[in-house]
Amino acid sequence: MRNRAALAALAALLLAPAPRAVCGADLEPHEYLDEDTAATVTVVARPLVFAYARTELAANARDYVTLAAAAVNRNGKISFVGIAYFWSTVDPRMRTDPLPGPEPLILQADDRRIELHLLGQSAHDAGIGIPVHAPPGSAATAYVYAMDLATLRFIAEAHRLMVFAESNRTLLSYPLWDDRRTALRAFVQHMGGGTAG
Fold it and tell me: Are 184 and 196 in contact (CB under 8 A)?
């Protein structure tokens, strides 16, 4: 009787879904053939989200910068990009200043300041026809920045991240609000860049 109970408990453990496997699958990059651009696109599973508190307007009001890594493969030539969105939970009627412009956009990763440069083309022109991690309920523009795998690896392994963006000639600091560096590490690993130990 005791052996049967032990075997039943062991079988239940073996058949139960492993939480790590579910979490790991959530971190895997998404890869698809973009039918509109004919490019194979690989996108990080979860973007980094940075936030600037606007408590002078409302208790939980924030301006956000979403930053997602992607790789575009056109006939074997791979280019890495960062897709950024500038968006807000502030009621537009309450704003006295505009959302930041797309340049300059500076990413502070530990002691390194990385100035991101616009590619000067739309996401579609860069090979991405389907919006990448667009903010919910927002018609925010997708801005495309040139990236490389080594820089993405450095960002993924950094201990502290912050974004600086300019509004009304003032450089505002956006601390990391939704930390998805584990997804970025998985993206770098998937693209053959490895990760620092």
Answer: no
49 touches 177 (CB < 8 A): yes
**Which residue matches tokens 């000067």?**
120
Tokens of residue 84, six digits:
């950024």
Of 132, 136, 142, 48, which Cα lies nearest the Cα of 89?
136
Q: Render the burial of 157-192: b for 16+ CB within 10 Å, e for the rest.
A: bbeebebbbeeeeeeeebebeeebbebbbbbbbbbe
The domain spans of the chain are 29-190
Report yes or no: 128 and 68 within 8 Å, Cβ to Cβ. no
Rounded CA-CA distance 66/186 in Å is 18
The helix/strand/coil state of 183 is: helix
pLDDT digits (tens, 9 = 90+) for 109-121: 999 999 999 998 8
Low-confidence ranges of the chain (pLDDT < 50): 1-22, 196-197
Angle between helices 19-27 and 181-190 (to 10 degrees): 70
The answer to whether the CB of 133 falls within 8 A of the CB of 68 is yes
Q: Which tokens in the block code for residue 30?
A: 């998404």
pLDDT score recorded for residue 8: 40
| Rg, the chain, Cα only | 20
Q: Is the peptide bond before 175 cis (omega within 30 degrees of 0)?
A: no
Residues β-bridged to residue 53: 62
